[in-house]
Amino acid sequence: MNISLVSPKSKTEVQDAYNFVKNILKFSEDHPRSLDFYLNIFQKDPRYVVIAKDGNEVIGAVLSSDDSEEKLLIGELAVDEKYRKAGVGTKLIQQLEENAIELGKNEISLGSQGPAENFYLKMGYTPRLFIQLTGNNRINEIKNNIPDKVVWENTGDGFSKIIVDTNGIDKELQKYISEKTGAHTQYLFSKRIVV
């Protein structure tokens, strides 16, 4: 195994990385970040994309963009099943963290579900529970069912949304909120990075 980490040098390499991730994660037709989106990011700076290769074969990739001037957002991370548990995902994230510092970022954020949540915990990312109900002005329906640890809330654009500080991943709370309110829930992760 001769694994290397690279940022793309051409649009073709961005397309290869995007298609690799799309195939692994099985994007739906309405996926929010398209190939064109990442081609525009590449034009801005190739360091937003990190590709893991074994020889010439793409075996993993992480795609990111700006969340704000200070914050980088990980959009997608995927590793070929044959290379999972071999440290490829860890290396991709570590390289992206180095790139983020070079890009002047001081924080990385992302959304995750399922088994990947524990990966981000091990990488030092802090989880917060994101809760979203369809319909404006439904914040209190969510608040009536959660501990008093709301760190952000917003209503408008057809949704009522809250982020809760859960001091770790609390699957029981997540399940309770989903079942009680019918809300979409997902853990958001963030990590402060420093030079």
Care to describe what's here?
The chain has 195 residues and is an alpha+beta fold. It has 2 domains: 3-105, Gcn5-related N-acetyltransferase (GNAT) (Aminopeptidase); 126-190, 2-Layer Sandwich (Alpha-Beta Plaits), CATH 3.30.70. It contains 6 helices and 9 strands. A 9-stranded mixed sheet has the order 1-2-3-4-5-9-6-8-7, with helices on both faces. Strand 7 (150-156) and strand 8 (159-164) form a beta hairpin. Helix 1 (11-25) crosses helix 2. The radius of gyration is 18 Å and the shape is elongated. The two termini are 31 Å apart. The model has no long low-confidence stretch (mean pLDDT 94).
List keywords for this structure.
195 residues; alpha+beta; single chain; 6 helices; Alpha-Beta Plaits; Aminopeptidase; 9 strands; elongated; 9-stranded mixed beta sheet
Number of domains: 2
Q: Uncertain runs with pLDDT below 50, 5 residues or more?
A: none
Specify the CATH homologous superfamily of the largest domain.
Gcn5-related N-acetyltransferase (GNAT)
Strand content: 25-35%
CATH class of the largest domain: Alpha Beta
Within the CATH hierarchy, at the fold level, what is the topology of the largest domain? Aminopeptidase
Distance between the termini: 31 Å
Question: Secondary-structure element order, as H and E?
Answer: EHHEEEHEHEHEEHE
Strand order of the largest sheet: 1-2-3-4-5-9-6-8-7
By CATH, the architecture of the largest domain is named: 3-Layer(aba) Sandwich
Number of helical segments with 4 or more residues: 6
Over all CA atoms, what is the radius of gyration? 18 Å
| Number of strand elements | 9
Q: State the share of residues found in helices, binned by percent.
A: 25-40%
Biggest sheet descriptor: 9 strands, mixed
